[in-house]
Amino acid sequence: MQAGSNKSDDHRYDDLIARALTTEGGHLSIGRGGFILWYDDSARLSGSDADPIKAACIGAGLLVIDSRGLDFAAVVRLALQGPMIAVGIPPDPVPYGPFRPASRVRGLRGIS
Questions:
Q1: What tens digit of pLDDT does each residue of 30-73 get?
Q2: Half-sphere exposure at residue 84, Cβ-oriented, CA atoms within 13 angstroms
Q3: Could you tell me the pTM of the whole model?
Q4: Rounded-to-integer distance, Cα 60 and Cα 26, Å
Q5: How far is CA 49 from the centre of its chain?
Q6: d(Cα 76, Cα 56) in Å, to the nearest integer?
């Protein structure tokens, strides 16, 4: 490898973080399995060494969601029932009719 041909570890994510900062909904999510940096329209970078990119994102002012310290049941509940983040696209409207979560639960209770 030639000297100067690679970025130092401290700045290897700078370009992608800058793109995430300009993307509506861009963020870094960290869980027990690693990290995902969401940037551009449906573009993402994943990896397992979360601490260096977490520090870089916080330093740049990017939203960081780190669920590693949360109770696992709470994380599962949020993933299944909580809101999702729209990245690079406008958020979907709230579901109505048969797709509303309360309707599905009532409908499922009536099925035996």
A1: 998 999 999 988 799 999 999 999 999 999 999 999 999 989 89
A2: 14
A3: 0.65
A4: 12
A5: 15
A6: 27
Contacts of 33 (CB under 8 A, 6+ apart): 48
How far, in Å, CA of 110 to CA of 41, rounded? 40
Mind spelling out the 3-state secondary structure of 53-108? HHHHHHHHCCCEEECCCCCHHHHHHHHHHCCCCCCCCCCCCCCCHHHCHHHHHHHH
Q: Is the pLDDT of residue 3 over 60?
A: no
Which amino acid, residue 108? L
Statement: residue 105 has pLDDT above 50: no
Q: Answer positive or negative: Cα dihedral of 106, 108, 111, 112.
A: negative
Tokens read off for 72: 């696992």
In this structure, which amino acid lies at residue 8? S
Tokens of 15: 């370009």
DSSP symbol at 35: E
**How far is the C-alpha of 52 from the C-alpha of 12, rounded, in Å?**
10
